[in-house]
């Protein structure tokens, strides 16, 4: 939940009614938004 709160600026109350499945989906969205895209190695 901390990842979601940090990326989307949500409070615990904003996430309180979400199911575990929904929190898992939002956590993945937060991870993708926070992590820079990986670049292909250059030669």
TrEMBL record:
Q: What Pfam families has UniProt attached to this entry?
A: Phage_P2_GpE
Organism's domain of life? Bacteria
What name does this protein carry?
GpE family phage tail protein
Source species: Salinicola lusitanus
